[in-house]
Amino acid sequence: xxxxxxxxxxxxxxxxxxxxxxxxxxxxxxxxxxxxxxxxxxxxxxxxxxxxxxxxxxxxxxxxxxxxxxxxxxxxxxxxxxxxxxxxxxxxxxxxxxxxxxxxxxxxxxxxxxxxxxxxxxxxxxxxxxxxxxxxxxxxxxxxxxxxxxxxxxxxxxxxxxxxxxxxxxxxxxxxxxxxxxxxxxxxxxxxxxxxxxxxxxxxxxxxxxxxxxxxxxxxxxxxxxxxxxxxxxxxxxxxxxxxxxxxxxxxxxxxxxxxxxxxxxxxxxxxxxxxxxxxxxxxxxxxxxxxxxxxxxxxxxxxxxxxx
Length: 309
Ligand code: SF4
Hints:
The protein is α/β, with parallel strands linked by helices. The protein contains eleven helices and eight strands. The chain has helices at residues 15-29, 47-56, 74-80, 95-102, 107-124, 145-155, 188-203, 212-223, 264-269, 271-281, 298-307; strands at 33-36, 60-65, 85-88, 130-137, 159-164, 241-242, 247-249, 258-259. It has a five-stranded parallel β-sheet. Helix 6 (145-155) links the parallel strand 4 and strand 5 (159-164). The protein is globular and about 55 Å long. The model has no long low-confidence stretch (mean pLDDT 90). The chain binds iron/sulfur cluster. Iron/sulfur cluster is lined by residues 233, 235, 251, 253, 280, 283, 285-287.
């Protein structure tokens, strides 16, 4: 699901350095929201201290996890950190489906047990923690998408979030042609019908966080993933990213614009940052294409091309 483990190891910032990043951001922005992401974020045991520190400083933290490293008392520790959002990936209702997609036996059981434990604890403790179940939609799990919505509702989670299968960090162009998870042509009609059913469920009030437009866009995307979206990528326009080694990026596929030791407000306004934003506006790669609300037609494509001449 994630190719980051293939990258060369970097030296990660220490807990104290991350705390100072939080403080610097807060001094610049006031209260803000931070998404802590991996790889798998709970590989770091001091992540609990960092989330607690963020919450104590009025910074709302969210995490996405595969749910495999939160056994025993760690679930309780997590609730007590003051975390705002906790997403555990769930790619199938059947253990075999989830384990196959994730490439490891037994991970479905672990993810389910963490979801249930944290959910039970948040109710018992009256916590405001929001819990979503992100699902990667692909050919391999398409028959389980409806059941996943029912699961989320029966368990009392806040919502399910569907993300179409996209390229891994190290993917080739036309990666979908080599992916065994990509839906087969013969299955596309069925997948369309399933997504239509999700749209009806959403309109009837089911706990699906995607917009109806996103779900429609997903259908077009699975028919032709090479289609470009109508909107430019917006990454780096209102957020920025810090990599594990403390470099500041606007997009992880583009060179860093600064470092955690710099003054963030100055880095944000650098000419270098503006140049990267122009490259982002012209980017045709599209990391999560099926999530964009609609696709570009030819006239839009020409207008967009001319705007970057
Ligand atoms: S779509 Fe392009 S600019 Fe946006 S995050 Fe992906 S690679 Fe970066």
